[in-house]
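Reminder: ligand-aware prediction takes two inputs, not one.
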Amino acid sequence: MGKIGTDIKQAAAFLKAGQLVSIPTETVYGLAANALDSIAVSQIFEAKHRPHFDPIIVHAHDLDQIKDLIVDLPPLAEKLAKLFWPGPLTLILPKSKSIPDLVTAGLDHVGIRIPRHPLTLKLLKKLDFPLAAPSANPFGYISPTRPEHVDEQLGDRVAYILDGGPCQVGLESTIIGFENGDPIVYRIGGLDLDLIKEVAGPMRIKLNTSSDPRAPGMLKSHYAPKVPVVLGDINALIAQYPKEEIGILSFKKQYLPELGTRSMVLSPDGDLRVAAAQLFDMLRALDKLPLNVILCEWVPDLGLGKAINDRLTRAAARD
Ligand code: TXA
Ligand code: MG
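Here is what comes back for the chain with magnesium ion:
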């Protein structure tokens, strides 16, 4: 009710007053609060039902602003920052005292990124503090890629939803940290790993699972709809389930067109960027239907396809 709009001044006023505002980014919508204000940040955890051991990414508008938030910017991190920011990349860097422990869940490193969305960059420039923002969804559910997604689930928890339209990338940022100076991939995401490798060389991939509570966003089951998701060969799966109970999410081929909106195609042209941008929106749409199961197939495992397959695997995980 008047909560969704493009009024940056309004959004800034709420944030200055310590309230929550949902912000558009190129990856997914964020649930933002003043990153330097523990009380404001604590509301993020409450609104999302997010466990306090899960650290939150801090969003800034330029490298200068970031320099106050960290104690060191290793040369490789600076190179990646200059090449890929603003963009779908989060760097894990040693934090300065200005970042409250609540933001990093007590860790001595903070996740930082400069998002590539004109409205949010304008908003960040208006503020004299950075914004802590996880994805604006209840913990464990699919991330929001449209303002309506935020409104449906967290509308009564936010003061305002800044409407930046549908997210262009549609997958959360790629997360890179450093161990003994070596770059490590903690989350495969919206920035193609091959592009990072061109600069950083080969990287170890350390996707956290439920056995490692340090990055619970990477829990085995995450990004999960309420309707169970089953991944595999769609024709084989169709044979296992009664037709009236299934929804389908395929890559480029349409299966059982007679199912209408219950059978969705990520990208009829087979474009992985389009598929990434559609993924969460289509999963949400299917999750609203009275289905017993959503049948999905993997997409080609290259470039952004790796991130899509990661999210599909977690959506299908049951523990
Ligand atoms: O694209 C994105 O990254 C979006 C937009 C809003 O920026 N944000 C996002 O935040 O996906 P969230 O909280 O849903 O996922 C962030 C992930 C979590 O898995 C968290 O554990 C990890 O980043 N993370 C954040 N800070 C960290 C830190 N200091 N050390 C290790 N992992 C961290
Ligand atoms: Mg999230």
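Residues 140 and 222 are 5 Å apart (CA to CA). Residues 134-135, 143, 217 surround magnesium ion (ligand 2) (CB under 6 Å). We will return to this case in the review session.
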